[in-house]
Design goal:
Distance between the termini: 25 Å
Order of helices and strands: EEEEHH
Number of domains: 1
Low-confidence stretches: none
Number of strands: 4
Strand content: 25-35%
Structural class: alpha+beta
Shape: extended
Protein name: Transposase
Radius of gyration: 17 Å
Helix content: 10-25%
Mean pLDDT: 88
Strand order of the largest sheet: 1-2-3-4
Length: 84
């Protein structure tokens, strides 16, 4: 079991989410299920090449609330743990 987290978003909504095996799952109100972020791979490459990124502070805050910070954590085991 993993604990459910609740985060109040800047627009007043409540975000229900959890993290499992380093994957972030958010509750989708419309589909009534938890979903991980999915990139739309059906868009043409030109769409991504012409992207200007997030242009307002509000868009940045919203993206961080939806997706989290863009960081990776790597746990390096102690040498002896590799032999257990």
């Amino acid at each position: 079991m993993v604990p459910l987290q609740r985060t109040k978003l800047f627009d007043g909504r409540l975000k229900l989410w959890f993290e499992f095996q380093k994957v972030h799952y958010t509750f989708d109100e419309d589909k009534k299920q938890f979903r991980s972020f999915e990139l739309d791979t059906n868009k043409p490459m030109k769409y991504f090449q012409e992207s200007k990124g997030l242009e307002t502070d509000e868009a940045i805050v919203e993206a961080k609330q939806d997706l989290g910070d863009n960081h990776m954590e790597m746990v390096i085991p102690q040498f002896m743990e590799l032999f257990k």
